Amino acid sequence: MDEFVGVVKEIRRFPVKSILGELLSSASIEKRGSSGDRLWAIRNKRGKFGSGKTTRRFQQMDGLFKLRSRYEGNTPMIAMPDGTEFRGDNNVVNEALTKFLGCEVTLVREESISHFDEGPIVLLQLRRYVN
């Protein structure tokens, strides 16, 4: 008899490290994880990547979690809190991010180093207990 293991309720992808992402109906899985996930990052002028924490590689940047990212084809789109979107292939995005975050930053593609906290794919199991 087959054992019921679970159901995938949502698939989320985060095109830019530490920025809210997008909800997907399906995803392709590659060696690096979900296709396009955390492929981009925001880098400050000291070479550190924006994150919710400061470590050897990352710099905490307040405000990142107020931004949203999605893909339009292979191009990341960054949405500001007011809904204004900027294309990742237009340098205007760097000006907008710098102004919003209050420090000089650039959006960079980062294929060689992964930006995952735990692993390339995270599965969360939520249990609901009934009394």
Distance N to C terminus? 27 Å
Question: Could you give the count of β-strands?
Answer: 11
> Uncertain regions: pLDDT < 50 for 5+ in a row?
none
Using the CA coordinates, give the radius of gyration. 17 Å
Describe this structure in words.
- This protein has 131 residues and is mainly beta.
- The chain contains 1 helix and 11 strands.
- The strands form 5 sheets. The chain has a 3-stranded antiparallel β-sheet with strand order 8-9-10, with helices on one face.
Q: How is this fold's topology laid out?
A:
Elements: E1 11-13, E2 22-24, E3 29-30, E4 33-34, E5 40-44, E6 49-51, E7 58-60, E8 68-72, E9 75-79, E10 85-87, H1 92-101, E11 105-109
Parallel strand pairs: 6-7
Antiparallel strand pairs: 1-2, 3-4, 5-11, 8-9, 9-10
Write a concise keyword list for the protein shown above.
mainly beta; three-stranded antiparallel beta sheet; two-stranded antiparallel ribbon; 8% helix
